[in-house]
Batch of 2 targets.
Target 1
Amino acid sequence: MELSKLGPSLTAREILELVQDDLVRVEREIGLESVASVDAITTISRYLQSSGGKRLRPTLLLLSSRLAGDGGDGAVRMAAVVEMIHAATLVHDDVIDVAETRRGRPSANVLFGNHRCVLAGDWLYMQAFQMALRERNFQILDLLIALTQMMVEGELLQLERLGSMSVTEADYMDLVDRKTASLFSACARLGAMVAGAENGMVGKLGECAWNLGMAFQLVDDVLDFTATENALGKPVGSDLREGKVTLPLIYALEEAADDEREVVRTILKDGSYDRVPFEKVLALIESRRGMERAMARAEAFTGKARGMINEFPDSPYQRALYGLTELVTDRDH
Ligand code: IPE
Ligand code: IPE
Ligand code: MG
Ligand code: MG
């Protein structure tokens, strides 16, 4: 276990123990709030909730809230809100990506169809906003609206760049900021806000979580190449097949020869590994140290987050946040 400046960071189990009671309440809240007057929506919401998932965002929100003070019921409610927003983005994302698997099961779009899933996602967004409204805090609504628009813009930008080999590292980072880091940042800020923290603390926790979110998506994109389908709960190599050129490949392409670029172009054109096996592109990325460089970039983001966490006073929650940064980079799914 790595040592932070103030004490040992916590393991996954220890982090979970800290927030377990609250997480149970979060699940209850999500269950209660996912009931619509139309069965299809309730069914899809329940399917999403019961399919597992790491609950990273509610955990981050709860830990931030505890670090900043005590968010009480508000923190539990907002943790449910961010997980419901996450679920809504995932169900829409799987429609857009024509995904077939999520969290080791058929994705909702496969079981319930695109039309129902789009509507269920819309409903979930609105339900989450209605729940957030109960805080009677305009700052929270401001944040959630800006966040949701940012995430939608991210998905749209991604859509526009689909199949393009000219995506730069800067383009990629902008996308990751929008589609993932912004939600992580929002989780930490919301947790601090409901705990009544002052703006400085809200900002610091937000920035720290933003770095964590950047690292999280970078690792996710590396895992898309290196993990097993079993561990990941979704097929490997999906990003490239879906037309997304992510950081390991961006790095590799920077140094690739013409025939190697042609290999990637073929996969993007086909949208499959029929003509070029997945192993070939994997070998190409490895030979240009694409994974290594992307992981180093992820580590730089977690390093930034850790530096900021070390500035907070020592407490179990401070150590848990530190532990969370380790889980993000050392995971297999
Ligand atoms: C998936 O997020 C979407 C990304 C930002 C990569 P998670 O990997 O946190 O999804 P679950 O909730 O654990 O399934
Ligand atoms: C992440 O997008 C989902 C959102 C943040 C909306 P991806 O398409 O990269 O995520 P996965 O790989 O489907 O989980
Ligand atoms: Mg997507
Ligand atoms: Mg996707």
Note: The first strand starts at residue 101 and ends at 102.
Target 2
Amino acid sequence: MKLIDPCNRHLNYLRISITDRCNLKCIYCVPQNQIPRLTHADILTYEEILRIAKIGVKLGISKLRVTGGEPLVRKGVTGLLRELSNIDGVNDLSLTTNGVALRDNLAQIKSAGIHRINISLDTLDRKKFQRITGLDLFDQVWQGIEMALDMGFDPIKLNIVALNGINDDELKEMALLSYKYPFHIRFIEYMPIGESRIGNSPLLLAPDIKNRINELGRLIPIRNSENDGPAQRYRFDGAVGEIGFIHALSQHFCDRCNRLRLTASGSLRPCLLSDHHEDIKGPLRKGASDQELAEVFIKAVRHKPSDHNLAVGNPSRVCGQMRAIGG
Ligand code: SAM
């Protein structure tokens, strides 16, 4: 059986948030006021995550990503990665991290079967890094990135949330990294999810970012292959790395969306930008059979909206916090 939604999209990609905890406090992700954290009991155990993932794989999921919160703050995460990569039918397992704990974990991450990694890096300036994240850890993150490169992780994607007045002056510098390093630089539009400390400054959208970067050289389009994500991919002539734009707001890619999310609190969420979710932890903890849990997947898929309704100039927000849903 396959997970096909009412719009005939085949969902084969599950993103798993394993914690709502993070070791950074990014201004666009963490609100001013404390938001209650999930309790230990609220968060899915690794055994529960594995069982849910295996049921998903039986339903045609073949691609998994572990995210958070910050996945590397949860104890034993590399053991989970190993178990996930050993599931028969998983042919792509990856990790999204802020890079703070990379240095100390890379060897184990690699031996757990992860070969490619996404690292969030919104600035190349140490002071600005502290301003954005609350902590003076740029050097540590950059060392982790260089180590990942030396250890042969490929591709290494650097995710940059582009923010007016915060890192817009650095976009070209970040794009230039792709000449020197084989990184996939990904510029992501800020999405109004949950509460944050971002004011109402106009959004910096992908077409504008692309225009600015175009001044550096001709961007040659790269054709997306079947398993690629939503980024529009380009390469500068002669560059070793590439540039991508993720225009979640300015140009929806919902028609190609193949994703489901498992939140840290145990819900299946068919769309990042819509609040609909199906509780799977409740039935699981009440002793549901695999078949009954498979039904929860099917119900979630049935509710996948054809399109999300966030748009440029539309002030609506998604309620959940990104770090619990899993970006
Ligand atoms: N802690 C990990 C990290 O920093 O990569 C994984 C979780 S984080 C929520 C995943 C990604 O979501 C990061 O690249 C982060 O920059 C991005 N993100 C968080 N809030 C966002 C927002 N409101 N709009 C766009 N991207 C956002």
Note: The chain is about 30% helix and 15% strand.
